[in-house]
Amino acid sequence: MEIDPLYITREYWVQLNIVVDNFCFFVLFMVLFALNMVLTHNVIPSHVKAHELPPVFTKLRIPIYGFGFVLLGAAAYFFIRSLTVAIDVLNIIYPDWWI
């Protein structure tokens, strides 16, 4: 018994394009979140301790952390959206799933 996919129409290609776009946004926001965490958790404290930055930059870490968690929330949103659209499209293209 083989899994026979249905014909992929233009409408399904558009939905698959939405999946890929959302996944690209997910990757983008995860990279920005990671860079934000490196900046706030490593770079700023190291430079303040080495006296390359004034101590006032330590107080800037809290809003930057907040922005980082906004980026993480955006990444989670795009990942969930990509996953739900992908499942919907794959259920149409492959009506019979094997487990």
Order of helices and strands: HHH
Report, as a whole number of angstroms, the end-to-end distance: 13 Å
Write down the Rg. Answer: 21 Å
Largest sheet: none
Structural class: mainly alpha
The number of helical segments is 3
- Overall morphology: rod-shaped
Helix content: over 70%
Low-confidence parts = none
Query: Strand portion, in percent?
Result: under 5%
Mean pLDDT: 91
How many β-strands, per DSSP?
A: 0
Could you explain how this protein is built, in words?
With 99 residues, this protein is an all-alpha fold. It contains three helices and no strands. Helix 1 runs antiparallel to helix 3.
Any chance you could write out the topology, listing elements then pairs?
Elements: H1 10-49, H2 56-59, H3 61-93
Helix pairs in contact: 1-3
